[in-house]
Amino acid sequence: MTSDRNPSAADAGARAAPGHAGLLGALDFSVLQQCMHCGMCLPTCPTYAATKLERHSPRGRITLMREIAEGRLEVSAAFGDEMYYCLGCLACVTACPAGVDYPTLFETARAEVEERGVLAAPKRDFIRRAVLRGLFTRPRLLRLVGRLLWLWRASGARWVFRSLRLNRLLPAYWRGLEAQAPDGRARFSHQLIAPVERPAHRPAAAAPLRRVALLTGCVQDILLAEINRDTADVLLAADCEVHTPPVQPCCGSLHAHNGDLATARQLARRQLDLFDPAQFDAIISNAGGCGSHLRHYGKLLATDAAYRDRAHQWDAKVRDVHEWLVEIGWKPPPLPAAPGGVTYHDSCHLCHGQHVAAQPRALLQAACGPAYRELGEAAWCCGSAGIYNLTHPATSADLLRRKMGHVRATGAATVATGNPGCHLQLQHGARQHGLDVRVEHPVSLLARAVRAAAAQR
Ligand code: SF4
Ligand code: SF4
User: Fold this and answer.
1) Which helix (H) or strand (E) holds 376?
2) How many angstroms is it from 453 CA to the middle of ligand 2?
3) What is the largest CA-CA distance in the chain?
4) Per-residue pLDDT tens for 380-399?
5) Mean per-residue pLDDT of the chain
6) How far apart are CA 377 and CA 388, in angstroms?
7) CA torsion 78→84→87→90, rounded to 10°?
8) Ligand showing the shortest atom-to-Cα distance for residue 83
9) What is the structure's pLDDT at 396?
């Protein structure tokens, strides 16, 4: 039997808050009670840093959620705006000494905002339905969009459009979107990676192969598919057998973070139908935002008797690619040349959501040696935050300016990051702020090192 009830409300022994019939009221009350109002999260919160207003802080937001759960406050448009002003960066989770489960609170609050319809408006509802339910549930349609983006650039249509300054005819918001439109790719993951690949040369006495599943993602697949190829190459070099089904569903993180938990559950079930976790030593994600969500299918499907056990098994197998490489003891060969140096920007959901921060640095330092240099405020959000750069362009632009200032200060010619949203945002930032800096996924640098080492053999 499947269910779309709020999972936390169904936990054995959970006690709901008195006075409110909605999703926040149905949440295990102990989750809402965890915050002890110490304020240690405040200095790490980008929206609080921007306004210095308590309601824009994690503590303030949790207080609002609790007021609603206890029936002292109505779910209103102002509450909805507050929940969407939050970046969902989870920096507060890292800072919190009480272990507050902010991801559950945040996702439940946004789901309640959507369920109550307090932000409903025809244009917003249409875009949400088209993007969340129409596009991101259909991988083939998503690839068609990727193809069109590629054609827009490759055919020269974009060049003509911009040369004739036709973008001036667009309303300001759409003009901003057009400037940020990514390039698209001629080929997607299934055209670059075979469904099953094994390491080419193995010594006879080698240990048994590790079987891993590679998740190709949505945005990564249509805009940065070569990163998936690089990931497969590094996994092969680390003596793994790589399984990459050609058509994969979206992981559902975009939906869960945007208040559509029902679709997020549907997509999680599709993912579990496609990959049997019992068949793999690890399920590999190379996208920080997706990985952070993928590790919590057990919680998402806690009330689904048909999928609950498999979801918990899945959670135990999900690994970020850097985490997995360090866990199995793989050492990268040296990168022959890292001109101008390499620095690293933490994806929020990789470092705060998955607590993977040391592993990418260790791998980059091993491959790049002294060319690697630390980035100031590396774990401060770049302003991408899912679709935040589209929904809150001014705040996002401020965060990007701050980030690019730190990138500039390193003098590095390459900034590495492990999430497609950050990747595209940093590329946009480099163009906008006139920085001659390449953006790379760490595995792309590692893959280059692997290929260079193979060429020397
Ligand atoms: S998720 Fe980020 S923006 Fe939201 S409250 Fe936490 S630190 Fe602030
Ligand atoms: S650090 Fe944790 S306990 Fe302290 S105010 Fe922030 S969320 Fe609450």
Assistant:
1) none
2) 48
3) 70
4) 999 998 889 888 999 999 99
5) 91
6) 20
7) 90
8) 1
9) 95
Strand partners, 247: none
Amino acid identity, residue 386?
A: G
Please give the average per-residue pLDDT across 239-250, as a whole number: 97
For a substitution probing ligand 2, which of 30, 36, 352 has the most ligand atoms within 8 Å of its CB? 36
CA dihedral in degrees (344, 345, 349, 355; nearest 10)? 40
The reply to whether ligand 2 has any atom less than 6 angstroms from the CB of 40 is yes
Residue 279 in tokens: 């068949």
pLDDT in tens, 412-437: 999 999 999 999 999 999 999 999 99
Say yes or no: CB of residue 100 within 6 Å of ligand 2: yes
Please indicate whether residue 43, judged by its CB atom, sits closer than 6 Å to ligand 2.
Answer: no
Closest CA relative to residue 24, chosen from 15, 36, 12, 32: 32
3-state secondary structure of 242: strand
Residue ranges of alpha helices (H) inside 155-224 are 157-163, 172-180, 189-192, 219-223
Return the structure tokens found at 393.
């362009």
Q: In terms of Cα–Cα distance, which of 424, 396, 420, 408 is closest to 343?
A: 408
CA distance 212 to 214: 6
Query: Where does residue 394 rank: exposed (0-12), middle (13-18), buried (19+ CB within 10 A)?
Result: exposed
Amino acid in the structure at residue 333: P
